[in-house]
Design a protein that fits this description.
By secondary structure, the chain is of the alpha/beta class. The chain has two domains: about 5-245, Thiolase/Chalcone synthase (Peroxisomal Thiolase, Chain A, domain 1, 3-Layer(aba) Sandwich); about 255-325 and about 355-400, Peroxisomal Thiolase, Chain A, domain 1. The chain has helices spanning about 20-30, 65-70, 75-90, 110-120, 130-135, 140-150, 165-175, 195-200, 240-245, 270-285, 305-320, 330, 340-350; strands spanning about 5-15, 20, 35, 50, 100-105, 155, 180-190, 230-240, 255-260, 295, 325, 355, 370-375, 380, 385-390, 395-400. The radius of gyration is 20 Å and the shape is globular.
Amino acid sequence: MANNRVVITGVGVVSPFGAGVETLVRNLLECKSGITVYEELKSIPSITSFTAGTAPEIDFSFIPRQYRRSMTKMSMFAIMASIEALKSAKYETAPEGTALYIGSTISSMKAWIDFAEKYINKHLEQVKTTAVFQVMNHSPLANLSQSLNIKGPGFGVCNACATGLVNIGLAYQAVKAGLIKSALCGGTDEYHPMMTGCFSIMNAASNQYNDAPSKASRPFDIKRGGIVCSEGSGMIYIESLENALERGADILAEIAGFATNTETKSISHPSSESIIDCMSLALQNADIKPDNIDLINAHATSTVAGDAEEAVSIAKVFGLKPKVNSLKGHLGHTMAASGSIELIAIIKMMLCGKIAPTLNLEEIDPACSGISHITKTQDISINTFMKNSFALGGTNASMVIRRYVK
């Protein structure tokens, strides 16, 4: 079996800051927040969290109507991010044989609720055929492949909040093994108040800063109170090093290693044991030591338990050597897109030598101490970093990225 080196040559993003990678990175480095008050949340009595991170209005008319009518926003986000990723990789269209790995947490909640209301009210005849394609679990995969004419292998992998990173990891493994030459991979999600409702049920939604939404998501901070849900898409184009060199591509970074495992102690909270195992397996897969990691971009969603477990795990494996940040203070939690959006952001920061801090980390919780938090934008030389993503339901994922060296 082959053992190809795998490189990243294209990236694309839609985030709460809008469309485009440069827009994302600029706002992160300037310590801007994409979180605002979402007015509809105030009308739901059982929800006490009123903040969310939604993308600005985007004109999707560039997508032909014949494709667009079977899409919801998550698919449109993914198409916009994918087009940017392909252009970044110096392609106008996806080359023949490109594989596609993309998923969301679940399909569009809005589409499902609209569908269910018509069913419950005995008006199923009002449901349009296109609605069926909007509620499929692999709707983004189907819509993306159809609209961009991507005919290669397609995988609609969904692992809740770890989806984006897991899809990149699976694509990496396939390219490394020589099963495919290239892939467009990542995650996508659209916001719906039901997302905040789900975390409210679990007492895990931020509700202490409704009057100051930019302060609502506060990873590792002693006053953190829960998740702020948001939306977006992050798509990455990866290929074998041989393929990239052959076509003269600009190489952004190399994927050095990846690991995923399953938490069995709790369906809702990752334990330090499983996080430690996942990060250690990723290091082993990359064949590097903990001392070689310069930065860890944490999953850290601003929950009391989750942030503490991750901080303890990082301290045990790495100690104080690597810098640590979370981008969810800026972005909120973009769900299935979080792993891929945040990975793209750190790659671009690695290349420019500036790293964004954990926004709103004003007083480090003692339970999250023992690691080297970044509290302001810094000039840092990063050669190798780790990205973590952990999901409800027990899926953990860690990926090691390094600067490309011939």
